[in-house]
Amino acid sequence: MTELMLAARDLKMYFPTYKGVLFRKQDSLIQAVNGVTLDLFKGETLGLVGESGCGKTTLGRTLIRLYSPTDGHIELCGQDITRLDGAALRKHRSNIQMIFQDPYASLDPRMTVFDIIAEPIRACEKVLARKELEKTVADLMETVGLSSRYIRKYPHEFSGGQRQRIAIARAVAIRPKVILCDEPVSALDVSIQAQILNLLKDLQKEFHLSYLFIAHDISVVRYISDRIAVMYLGKIVELANTEDLFGSPQHPYTKALLSAVPLADPRKERVREQILLHGDLPSPAHPPSGCPFHTRCPWKMDVCTRVVPPNFKAGEGHHAACHLLDEKLMTKQ
Amino acid sequence: MIMKAAVVEAEKGRSLWQDAFQRLLKNKMAVIGFCYLIVQASLAVLAPWIASFPFEETDLLLGAVAPDSVHYFGTDALGRDMFTRVLHGARISLMVGILATAVSLAIGVLYGSISGYMGGRVDNIMMRLLEILYALPFTFFVIILMVLFGRNIYLLFIALGAIQWLTMARIVRGQVVSLKKMEYVDAARSMGVGHVRIIASHLIPNVLGTVIVYVTLTVPNVILEEAFLSFLGLGVQEPMASWGTLISDGVGAMQTYPWMLIIPCASLMLTLLALNFLGDGLRDALDPQASKD
Amino acid sequence: MTALLQVDELKTYFFTRDGLFKSVDGISLTVKKGKTLALVGESGSGKSVSMLSLLGLIPQPPGRIVGGKAFFHDRDLLHLPDRELQALRGEKIAMIFQDPMTSLNPYLRVSIQLTEGLRAHHNEISKKEARRRAIEALEHVGIPDAKQRIDRYPHEFSGGMRQRVMIAMALISRPELLIADEPTTALDVTIQAQILNLLKNLQKEMNLSIILITHDLGVVAGMADEICVMYAGKIVERGTADDIFYTPSHPYTIGLLGSMPRLDSGKGDLKAIPGLPPDPSRLPKGCPFADRCPKVMRQCRDDHPLPLRKYSSTQEALCYWEKKEGEKT
């Protein structure tokens, strides 16, 4: 077994919403992440797909401890970081870094590229002389495919793809073990997207990085991931190796999701069978009872509205949370 | 594989500040306003050396004379040279404007950024406190201060600044609240950058643009308020003069010696106009999206 | 087959402080009755600007339509008085946008926004009649409980439902041409599937012509009868969906297809197109794609109009390089 880099155990992240100005009363509880368990191993890419509002971004931000989880545990490189704070947490941050979706918002417009990329190095208190630091940053820029001539430039002087390269250089600057990629290519054009995906793959090999790759674009996730977790309404409904997930999806939601992706092939597209889902995602403030997907599931059974489905094994390293996989239940019916 | 890079011929980038400055230079009115302010300020600073008469020297025998080649702006009823007095008035008025704004800047930026960055209950309490202070009638407040501590020019700075910072704090807080949600702040937090560093290196530089614009609008406000207080007789004390006291004196002599009113009024107006032009230009330059392109 | 819209050599330039932007640099296209034409390109390729030009929605200044013709039936849209163009907009030609949240007014009930356009074009329609037709339109686009929902505000609808409202609004006066600008980009994939299906069904039912503007080749494959690939203000290749996907002949189209991760083929490496699109204010001489093109030749950078190579009756590419039969790309 390879080394476990990042683990979540029954992780929950709830956000209370408030009413009132002076005397605030709790209105409701948004259950953005609702009991997530997952492992990220050394050198692998774990894809996390789901539609907007499913909680994938919140999960990412909770894992990197931008939020304090409501319940559950997070382990980073064997250390429990669930409740760490302040300086103790800061020490562990050097193991995990993040790349954000919007390369226009994630870089401070008033800083030079040098200051941006040097920021994590300075933050983790590796004291370097200015000359040395400049050398390090210049090397990083070349590594991500940017000319180090641009070290004194400002973010607004770059295109979207180049800015994302700056963000990537910043993320690998302190040689973290885990990088959390939150929709890193969804703001980019297709031709640029491919450049960035290939760069991420190259860096992974070079620095033995583990990626948690969050995205809504299933083709992108398939391209980059070794394993994929499918998230729906705060829960992981299916997790499998990439080939298994696409070869034999088990959860009805996964099936619907995969069948909804348009194919870039007119002939296949003409005969593609779709599972059209009706209705919208329920509100995470009032998730349905039982299986979270039962309100839209074409194969809904009685039990689905009452009992939360546990994880059923569907193959080696492949499991899905759906009652249809419960052999005992299905033979009874 | 890491390529060895040389940092020798790094291209200079153009920061947002430089961009803004370039845009500002294209705005004629703002440049004119800026130049006028420079001239006005240097005249005020050099007043004791430029003016040919001491500002408090009276010449009762001379009395009030209209502007001529000796007294460029004429003299007042006590025979004091108006040119000298307007220049010295500028010293006081500009100093009040700048110092009171500085006071408001210091308190307002600090208060606003702490309130905005901390959020939650702290923010709530700090903002309610601000609202209570807003509700106090300010003239009354200044009058009480003046009565309690006597008329003192430094007290005036503090009193005016203490009123102006309220709005400044609100503006800064609003900016910080929205900036705090920017991904680059999250990015910094996820990298383990501390709170103080985040405020100093990400938040303050980014609110500065808005703050500068607001400052150029605060300075004329303060000058006007000082003029108003002086007009009421609460400002600087005789024989010192500010534009406000000069106007106040001028109003009394309006019908007999009109230059005593017109000249300080014109000085005040031109300065305020210049500040407003500059402020407008700065706003457009710092926030190009807001202005029509 | 009759052409509903015929655009000839449309040129839209922007004259700004930072220079001249040739956003749309001479494009020609034909939209047939009841068919879908897709304009595919990356951001800044001029696909949206070209369509906004047709509707007279370009901010002028700094924008200006410097040349071309666009015949809709027998009227030239580019030289129509504002009044007549406005009458055409919404009535015969409707448009839907990427973000249904910003294209609906958040302070007005959906009912008002739906009937507004209808009553603007036909003042003989009574309020009651307009409302009846609005409810019908909402039911038509698959909004359940349309009778109740029509009096709600936009924020009370989900993203997918808002896009349905937008479509209902566009189609309420039964236009002949619908311009859909990235209609599903802001939506999730399961919702996208719903909306695309809806558009296809409506098209059949109403014999609607659609211009679909998108950057997503996957969306295009199932929707488009004809595809125009745009790059830096020019249409670099046009053809049927089969032409473009199975025998692409412009190096940019080939690159675009190669750089797209897909679900239906192996997990081989993506062949990214190197470099960046050119700065639209400093377009190079000759072919704008030359700097990124693997097939670049010397004449590509000459200051001559690029040759239009015809591959079949439906397919042509704006390129010096000629793809040989069966050549591997």
Radius of gyration of chain B: 24 Å
The number of distinct β-strands of chain C equals: 12
Largest beta sheet of chain C: what is the strand line-up?
A: 6-7-8-3-9-10-12-11
The amount of beta strand of chain C, in percent, is 15-25%
- Distance, first to last CA of chain C: 34 Å
What is the name of the CATH superfamily of chain B?
MetI-like
| Fraction in beta strands of chain B | under 5%
Mean pLDDT of chain B: 78
Largest sheet of chain B: none
Question: Structural class, from secondary structure content of chain B?
Answer: mainly alpha
Total count of helical runs of at least 4 residues of chain C: 10
- Show unreliable segments of chain C: none
Largest interface: A-C, 45 and 46 residues
**Main pleated-sheet profile of chain C:** 8 strands, mixed
Examine the secondary-structure arrangement and name the CATH architecture of chain B. Orthogonal Bundle
Task: Quickly count the helices of chain B.
Answer: 11
Low-confidence stretches of chain B: 1-8, 289-293
CATH class of chain B: Mainly Alpha
Q: What is the H/E string of chain C?
A: EEEHEEHEHHHHEHEHEEHHEE
The span between the termini of chain B is: 46 Å
Quaternary state of the chains: heterotrimer
Quick structural summary:
Chain A is of the alpha/beta class and 333 residues long. Helix content of chain A is 32%, strand content 24%.
Q: What report would you give on this structure?
A:
The complex is a heterotrimer of chains A (333), B (293) and C (329). Chain A is α/β, with parallel strands linked by helices and 333 residues long. Chain A has a single domain, classed as P-loop containing nucleotide triphosphate hydrolases (Rossmann fold), CATH 3.40.50.300. Chain A has helices spanning 56-63, 86-92, 113-123, 130-143, 160-172, 190-207, 218-224, 242-247, 252-260, 266-271, 327-332, and strands at 4-19, 25-41, 45-49, 71-76, 79-80, 96-99, 178-182, 210-215, 227-232, 235-241, 312-315, 318-320. In chain A, strands 6-7-8-3-9-10-12-11 form an 8-stranded mixed sheet, sandwiched between helices. Helices cover 71% and strands 0% of the residues of chain B. In chain B, α2 (28-45) packs across α4, α6 (138-149) packs across α7 and α8 (183-190) packs across α9. Chain B is globular, with a radius of gyration of 24 Å. Chain C is of the alpha/beta class and 329 residues long. In chain C, strands 6-7-8-3-9-10-12-11 form an 8-stranded mixed sheet, sandwiched between helices. Chain C has a 4-stranded antiparallel sheet with strand order 2-1-4-5, covered by helices on one side. Chains in contact: A-B, A-C. At the A-C interface, α6, α7, α9 and α10 of A face α6, α7, α8, α9 and α10 of C.
